[in-house]
């Protein structure tokens, strides 16, 4: 999904719950988990669905998903200021 909203991505793409795993064979440190953006978007969507805020207006489920991403991006933008 392409989002035209401009915001500071400084930490939105970092892991929400970083876990470093060191691979002894290659010396590589791997990080896993959801990004902060993904984590926040799922929480926003969960809240919208549980509070019945989103009404199906013909856009189907994708409308709720798009709105949760827009709200997440706005939150990250304001937190970065």
Characterise this structure.
The chain has helices spanning about 35-50, 60-80, and strands at about 20-25, 30. Residues about 1-5 have low confidence and may be disordered. The radius of gyration is 16 Å and the shape is elongated. The chain is about 45% helix and about 10% strand. It has one domain (about 20-80). With about 80 residues, the protein is of the alpha+beta class. The longest helix has 20 residues, at about 60-80. The chain contains two helices and two strands; from the N terminus they run E-E-H-H. Strands 1-2 form a two-stranded antiparallel sheet.
Short description:
The protein is an alpha+beta fold. 43% of the residues lie in helices and 12% in strands. A two-stranded antiparallel ribbon has the order 1-2.
What does the secondary structure layout of this molecule look like, with pairings?
Elements: E1 19-23, E2 28-32, H1 36-50, H2 61-80
Antiparallel strand pairs: 1-2
Helix pairs in contact: 1-2
